[in-house]
Amino acid sequence: MKKLIAMVLALVCAIGLVACGGNTKNVKITDYSSEMYSDAEIENAIDVAINYFEKNFEGCTLTEITYLGDDKLDDWQEFAERNNADDVMVLVSSFNVDASGGDGSLNPNSTYTNWKWILVRTNGGKWEHVDHGY
Fold first, then answer.
1. Would you state the pLDDT for residue 103?
2. Cα(39)–Cα(53) distance, integer angstroms
3. What are phi and psi of 5, to 5 degrees?
4. What SS3 class is residue 43?
5. pLDDT in tens, 77-129
6. Please, which residues have CB within 8 angstroms of residue 59's CB and are 6 or more apart in sequence?
7. Can you say whether the dihedral through the CA atoms of 18, 21, 26, 31 is positive or negative?
8. Are strands 28-29 and 87-97 parallel, antiparallel or unpaired?
9. What are phi and psi of 53, to 5 degrees?
10. Measured between alpha carbons, how far is 113 from 104 in angstroms, rounded to an integer?
11. Does residue 70 have a pLDDT over 60?
């Protein structure tokens, strides 16, 4: 299912239905497990992060993304509290930056690993991207 989502997003991007900034064509969604969230909940959060990447990381190629894990969520709970949300989800990714340096804030011709995506939601609703970075 994870691979199917990535393939569908790549196809939509490739045929031009979405204006693509960042490249997510061959992103690897690493296996994950959770006792707190279902696969569908994690996949929905990954979709939000991928969509944000496509729109805002021009000149960059997302190579891998996954759920950080249940045991790390307490460290990130402040993001839920700050955003008046019930749940927090943290994803971790890797991506390459081309010679343009993305929007100019990234190192040109470099690879970023362990890049976090912080998402929150309220009452089991839709995940919302609230922050990213190291």
1. 84
2. 21
3. -60, -45
4. helix
5. 999 999 999 999 999 999 999 999 888 899 999 999 999 999 999 999 999 99
6. 21, 22, 97, 98, 99, 100, 101, 102, 103
7. negative
8. unpaired
9. -60, -45
10. 18
11. yes
Q: Domain of 24?
A: 2-133
- Are the C-beta atoms of residues 66 and 31 closer than 8 Å to each other? yes
70: Cα separation from own chain's centroid: 16
Q: DSSP class of residue 83? A: T
SS3 25: coil
b vs e for 92-104, b when ≥16 Cβ sit within 10 Å of the residue's Cβ? bbbbebeeeebee
Look at the chain and report how many structural domains it folds into: 1
* Helical (H) or strand (E) element with 129: strand 128-133
- For the segment 4-33, what is each residue's pLDDT rounded down to a tens digit? 444 444 433 443 333 347 898 889 998 889
Contact yes or no for 85/121 (Cβ under 8 A)? yes
